[in-house]
Design a protein that fits this description.
single chain, 409 residues, binds NADPH dihydro-nicotinamide-adenine-dinucleotide phosphate, alpha/beta, globular, 6-stranded parallel sheet, disordered N terminus, 9-stranded mixed sheet, 11 helices
Length: 409
């Protein structure tokens, strides 16, 4: 079955970036937004099973270190990002925001966050008066990013926001506008732009190490536990996850196609798949496949799924060689091979530096005004392209794009 129940005209309106309605609200049958007055709400979740907290609180940092409030103490925050603050000399955890009081206490004690710097979601806006907090790091389910970013800007804080930036381009624009109004910085946490293999891959493609790029193929595939239900897994709840795998995982393949070719697509075709009688995919897509054509003639095929054995690859084929990245965009375990004129396996050091280097970039941007490598405009660009992918799948036709990724009116 292709597509999710919504009128074709409505979908194109969304793709055209004109509607403030989320994809989830309009596109997905049974989207449970009515109960929340149209937008999802933040609520605490249990502590993940496999968390290891520091046995002693991290030592204090240099005087110009940027204080971050971590919003949402889930798997990625607790297991990946929070432990990496100790590797970023100019970044420290100053406050926590969570809906689970027990987690606030245990995590706060472990990281040495004072009791009066631990906030619930209801207390969030009080961070405005907390001078220990310079920036807010939003690690909430994706459908909550926009509201918390706008509230953080309103509180006068800088915002580091997880990917995807938001579920609609309208929300992305709302975030960018709020940041400008507050005169505060906004970064999207695309850690891959700080990962050594991906940085070298971009440089190799720029210097035409495989000649002119002809094809890119990416796969970001995983399998959602068959017993999962939206009530306990936000990744299959459209109000928090949009269409599903594309926003969550496929976004890495989309990003790779853009930073490896160095181009924006001029047209997109796509197919979505939503099986009947599978409760996991009652409200989100199981799989999304799209094809992007670039002005140079390069063609990218992007596959993403929540219903497949796992894969995380980016293959680029040029007219004189190929670049094979497998795994391409994970936390660690990257492998990269160049074939053609230069033929070698490339081992470029520890991929896990990506987490701290991302923090370094944002803290330097806040303190010294340096350029942000992955700004809000990049997040908006990607959300627009995902809207175009859904519009192409819905209409069954190629969607032609303006040079900045919009669907022409
Ligand atoms: P989790 O489900 O593990 O954690 C999300 C946390 O958000 C919860 O623990 C909870 O924290 C809080 N939360 C608030 N409201 C809700 C709600 N209604 N439903 C569920 N949780 C809620 O998710 P992840 O940590 O995996 O993902 C969080 C964000 O990070 C997403 O935007 C995701 O896309 C991004 N991410 C980025 C990665 C990357 O590599 N850059 C990798 C993985 C995720 P509490 O209990 O403290 O309130």
């Amino acid at each position: 079955m292709d597509g999710i129940g919504m009128s074709r005209r409505r979908f194109i309106e969304l793709g055209r970036d004109t509607a403030a309605v989320t994809l989830a609200t309009a596109a997905v049958p049974g989207a449970a937004l009515a109960q929340t007055g149209g937008r999802p709400v933040a609520r605490g979740r249990p502590m993940p099973d496999d968390v290891s907290l520091p046995s002693t609180p991290p030592r204090s940092k240099r005087s110009d270190s940027v204080g971050y409030a971590i919003v949402g103490l889930g798997d990625y925050a607790l297991n990946q990002m929070m432990p990496r603050f100790s590797q970023s000399p100019r970044s420290h955890i100053a406050a926590l925001v969570s809906g689970n009081p027990d987690k606030l206490r245990r995590v706060g004690d472990a990281y040495g966050v004072p009791a009066d710097a631990r906030y619930s979601y209801e207390q969030f806006d009080r961070i405005a008066a907390d001078r220990r907090i310079d920036a807010v790091y939003i690690v909430l389910p994706s459908g909550l990013h926009a509201d918390y970013a706008v509230r953080a800007f309103t509180a006068g804080k800088h915002v580091l926001c997880e990917k995807p930036m938001a579920l609609t381009s309208a929300d992305c624009k709302r975030m960018i506008a709020a940041g400008r109004r507050a005169n505060r910085r906004l970064m999207i946490a695309y850690r891959v732009h700080f990962e050594p293999h991906n940085i070298e891959a971009m440089a190799l493609m720029q210097r035409r190490a495989i000649g002119k790029i002809r094809f890119v193929r990416t796969e970001q595939l995983s399998r959602t536990d068959p017993s999962s239900r939206p009530v306990e897994n936000w990744r299959i709840d459209p109000s928090l996850a949009g269409g599903g795998p594309l926003e969550d995982y496929g976004i890495y393949g989309l990003q790779a196609a853009l930073y490896l070719t160095g181009e924006m697509p001029e047209s997109i075709t796509a197919t979505t798949f939503q099986p009947a009688n599978d409760p996991r995919f009652a409200q989100v897509f199981a799989s999304v496949a799209s094809q992007l054509t670039f002005p140079s003639g390069a063609i990218a095929q992007l596959m993403t799924s929540y219903d497949s054995s796992g894969s995380n690859i980016a293959h680029v084929r040029g007219d004189t060689g190929a670049l094979i990245m497998d795994a391409a965009t994970g936390y660690q375990g990257h492998k990269m091979r160049l074939e053609g004129r230069e033929r070698r396996d490339l081992s470029l050091g520890d991929p896990t530096v990506q987490f701290a280097r991302q923090l370094d970039n944002f803290s330097d941007a806040i303190r010294d005004g340096v350029a942000i490598r992955t700004p809000g405009e990049m997040g908006l660009r990607d959300v627009r392209l995902m809207e175009a992918i859904y519009a192409a799948a819905e209409t069954g036709r190629a969607i032609r794009l303006t040079p900045d990724g919009r669907i022409p009116r």
